[in-house]
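W.,

You were right to be curious about this one. When I first looked at the sequence I had no strong expectations either way, so I just let the prediction run and decided to look at it fresh. Below is the sequence, 313 residues in total, followed by the output.
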Amino acid sequence: MDLVADVLEISGVRGTIGTRTEAGGDWSVSVAGCAVAVVHVVTAGNAWLDLPGSSPRRRELAAGDVVLMPGGPAHVLSSGPGAGTSVADPEMVSRGFGSGEVIRLGSQPADTRIVTIGYDCDHTVHTQILGTLPEVVHIRGDDGADGFDDTVRMLGRELSHPQLAGRAVLNSLVDVLLVQLVRAWLPTRSEPHGTWLGVLADPLVHKAMEQLHAEPALPWTTTRLAHALGVSRATLSRRFVAAVGQTPAAYLTQWRLDLAAVRLRGSRDPVESVATAVGYQSVPAFSRAFARSRGMTPGRYRTAARDDGRLSA
């Protein structure tokens, strides 16, 4: 089982190309903070990223570089540290980031091209990956990550030379880019103990979580899970909490309720069926657990989803 793919799917992570920047000469553009993760892909030329409050504050970006900011903070892109304040029309920038149109900056022919992508997710799902990543993930184009540079080049070609079914290709490339970004970052990370990504640092916890994800409806206890893995209950509990920041029981409850929330919004299955599918034999017990997690009963949650237009037909 691919745990990362599993969580990305359940948390509904989806990417959308926000805009394309073409710039030459002396230029600078301020990017307002937003509620989605922001990725800049430099397909040609060079640029500088100025992110107040980060360390380092300024980063030089070269062709092939990709930088991810999961929190969507306000920042500045420019031709260099001395470019000064933003010289772009704020209304044009806002319109471009909302529509995906090309933003042209500077007084000289464009030699720098940047694709900006926004990644959003289902914020009602508690098991997330984007939120566990550092403030800035900067992958250089020459880092040699398998396939990463190929994806960046394909993205640039598809945008520069649109062809048949280009939108479908771009949507796929955007999703692939995020996975490859995480792949390239993982070997460089410090041990991410206390977050979901801690599962990737401990083989025992990884195997335990694979069991929980594969069969969430089983009547798991920490003792039963430890027995399946051939270790003591104390060992599993200690290593699971150290890696993930939760007990196995707490994580299983969170995962079950995430699965239930997605199913309640995405289907018209009876609440009883949803409860059974995620491991609750008692509907009242399921309703109480769901209400503690989501602040409303499963029925009200489904109604709210329908009112928001998020319930599948």
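Here's what jumped out at me. The radius of gyration is 22 Å. And, maybe more interesting for your project: The first strand starts at residue 14 and ends at 23.

Coffee later to discuss?

I.
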